[in-house]
Design a protein that fits this description.
The chain is 28% helix and 31% strand. The chain is an alpha/beta fold and 345 residues long. It has 2 domains: 184 residues, FAD/NAD(P)-binding domain (3-Layer(bba) Sandwich); 149 residues, FAD/NAD(P)-binding domain (3-Layer(bba) Sandwich), CATH 3.50.50.60. A 7-stranded mixed beta sheet has the order 11-17-12-13-14-15-16. Strands 5-2-1-9-20-19 form a 6-stranded mixed beta sheet, with helices on one face. A 3-stranded antiparallel beta sheet has the order 6-7-8. The structure holds flavin-adenine dinucleotide and iron/sulfur cluster (SF4). Iron/sulfur cluster binds next to strand 12 and helix 5.
Amino acid sequence: MLNEGVLVIGGGVAGMQAAIDIAASGREVVLVDKERSLGGHVKEYGSLFPELTEGTLVVKQKAQIIKDNPKISVMLGSEVDRLTYADSNIKANFVSNGTINDQIFSAVVIATGFDNFEGKKYGEYGYDRYPGVITGIDFEHQEEAILKKPIKTAVFIKCVGSRDRSKGMPYCSKICCMYTAKQAAELKKAQPNAQVYVFYMDIRSNFKNGEEFVRSAMENQHIKYIRGRVGKVIPTNGRLLIRAEDTLMGVPLELEADLVVLATAMVPRESTKSLATQLGIKLDSNGFISPIPMTESENPMILTKGVFYAGACGFPCDVKDAINQGSAAAAGVLGYLQFNRRAAN
Ligand SMILES: Cc1cc2nc3c(=O)[nH]c(=O)nc-3n(C[C@H](O)[C@H](O)[C@H](O)COP(=O)(O)OP(=O)(O)OC[C@H]3O[C@@H](n4cnc5c(N)ncnc54)[C@H](O)[C@@H]3O)c2cc1C
Ligand code: SF4
């Protein structure tokens, strides 16, 4: 049976873009997300580095394009939990309010995004135990309230769960240097008298204008970057005592803070791992999707016959990269449907 419908799993920015580009060719697309609204993580963000565009605005604009295109059907509150081959098509199982349905598609884009590393795995920082200790994602979700609350001192701790072979993940999560600079600068703009410190191992800002963005946080917003590691956060007199070491100066230091923000790693989702495994798609050693080597494939986002991927399910990436990958996956799907399937029939 020839089926020309395409399934996009995940309505984050990567999946939204893939759906928009595929539907622009006139093909039917089903865009499914397990949450009740589109946008993935970005729908919760106030601003996006480096231009400080509103995250919600990016999501709203894409959601409107999707709404206006009758070729795209959106299924919210529905999770794809199984993918199997059915002749030359792919069968997907949807779980929604405890009921399971299935549907056949000619091609699939996996755009299932990332999860957050559990901050409480670093017990010494007191996440989930001490009020005032939050993660970078919590900062994005609670930004309005955080910026309104008077803060004398805030401390940002980078590389929590990244670049740590013993307790976390071995890789660098790539974007947390940038979002930490963004959050620290937002805080300082809202509360110019606050002292804001960033503890870092390295500063990795290899994005267009990334270096300038971080430098501006340091020089224009007067955020104090300290090369070093925080050893412990201790609740003291209603505040948080930070015990750390300045590794450039080679001295221990202590300071009291009202807010501690942990830049936790971006990690692969369990659902990505299980969907990939069902279709025999390779994962890398960390559990992210592993594409076919460039020398063996015609499109960088192809995984196996008719199955493509886009966004942070492949590796931590910023919003622009996720959107570009959504477009690249869409181009791959259209090429596949036009040429490969015509040849097969
Ligand atoms: C704290 C923080 C701040 C950041 N700030 C910035 C910034 O300022 N600028 C910037 O460029 N980038 C920023 N990023 C990066 C940004 O979050 C990612 O680039 C973006 O979210 C990737 O989009 P995505 O669509 O790949 O994944 P996601 O946003 O994770 O979306 C994936 C979607 O898939 C859905 N899904 C997953 N599995 C299933 C399934 N089986 N069935 C149905 N639906 C499913 C999920 O519900 C989700 O809606 C930040 C990241 C963090 C952690
Ligand atoms: S991007 Fe920066 S904060 Fe994130 S893991 Fe890499 S070096 Fe650490």
